[in-house]
Amino acid sequence: MSTADEVRENVKKYYGSRVESSDLQTSAATSSSCGISFRPMPKSVRDALSLVHPEVAKKFFGCGLPFPSKLEGCKILDLGSGSGRDCFAFSKLVGPNGHVTGIDMTEELISVSSQYVEYHQKTFGYEKPNVTFVQGYMEKLNEAGIQNDSVDVVISNCVICLCADKRAVMQEACNALKEGGELYFSDMYASKVIPDHMKQDPVLWGEGMSGSLFWRDLISLAHSVGFSTPLLVSASRIVVHNNELKEKAGDISYISATYRLFKLPKTPVLSSATVTYKGTMADSPDELYFDSLHTFKKDVAVEVNGEMAAILQTSRFCSDFKIQMLDKPDSNSESAPQYCHLDPFLWSDKMGSSVKQCSKLNK
To answer: At what angle do helices 215-225 and 166-176 cross, to 10 degrees?
Structure first.
């Protein structure tokens, strides 16, 4: 399992052979129950998920709920779309004027998801489909027909941990996004760097354990390809009960975490600002939970650092805020930021979130 191609082929076989259900052999990272947010799911998302065909939901693999707000009219790209559950939910959320593209390397899953495009079009009352599924690799989006600067939001649900070349995935996602666009994704993370001997185990790769990124490495990776500093949205610990897996993992802990990253202008003007949320989003009339550090209350002015100011100015959220730039140095200009607030393990413990015990791990 020494090359990215070998890992990719192993994962493709691993998931292709389990297309009939989401019951993986060990299921350390792929049970949808292992990424529940501490905040209530917005009604619009609950409603959209409830309309997804049962057979699609049955074949779903994922570790979180990567559903950002304000998606109407957006062009969305789902990396590793699998059975299509998230794509069909997004189809409802973006509306008839939006579009969702799902890309997956597994032919069996593309075949499954494509069978239900017409069903969801009719269920949502659309004149034409707004979902497209393509077979391809998320490390090579151009080869799959995904153009640079073409999408508003890139989504991913527990698939980057299945990829050996994470830098290529992140770079391709950044390239595909328009300026101001967002990568909003759930994934499995490790409490420390995964040792090389674990990366030789095909089952651990299939379960996401060998490929889980040490959470701190996400920060440098994001910056290296052109993204803003990751913003932690939610996290919940994963407890491994399967004795064989537990022994192989040793003292490494795992967690499901959702982060959001933005593609800012190449030379953004970073200046602190006072921002005021207008309360204009239907699911968030009184306050907008943006990430673990930022909850914006309606009509309450708050000061943010230069990077957050740039995010709000250039993203799809710009019309939802009054932004007043401040004539003062950026409050986030320290030379050696610690990023402790981005640690999903600390955040999960601090929030007192209940430990998610995936029943399938008991097998």
So the answer is: 50
Helices (H) and strands (E) in the chain, counts: 12, 13
Mean pLDDT of 13-19: 53
- Written as one letter, the residue type at 296 is F
In sequence order, the 6+-apart residues with CB closer than 8 A to the CB of 6 are none
- Bridge partners for 64 per DSSP: none
Nearest to 71 by CA among 83, 53, 87: 87
- Which element (helix H / strand E) includes 15? helix 4-16
| Dist CA 300 CA 305 (whole Å) | 16
pLDDT digit string, tens, across residues 267-299: 877 899 999 999 999 999 999 999 999 999 999
95: tokens are 């509306």
Q: What is the pTM of this model?
A: 0.89
How much is the pLDDT for 88? 97
- Token output for 72: 């109407």
Give, to the nearest 10 degrees, the angle between helix 4-16 and helix 107-114.
Answer: 50
Average pLDDT over residues 120-135: 97
DSSP string, 335-352: SS---GGG-HHHHHHHHT
Quote the Cα angle for 1-144-122, to 5°: 115
DSSP state of 33: G
216-228 pLDDT per residue, tens: 999 999 999 999 9
Q: Is the pLDDT of residue 31 over 50?
A: no
User: In terms of C-beta density within 10 A (0-12 exposed, 13-18 middle, 19 or more buried), how is residue 331 classed?
Assistant: middle
Triad 41, 47, 52: Cα angle to 5°:
115
Query: Which residues are CB-neighbours of 337 under 8 A, at least 6 positions away?
Result: none
- Three-class SS of residue 52? coil
Pick the range with the lowest mean pLDDT from 60-74, 93-107, 223-237.
60-74
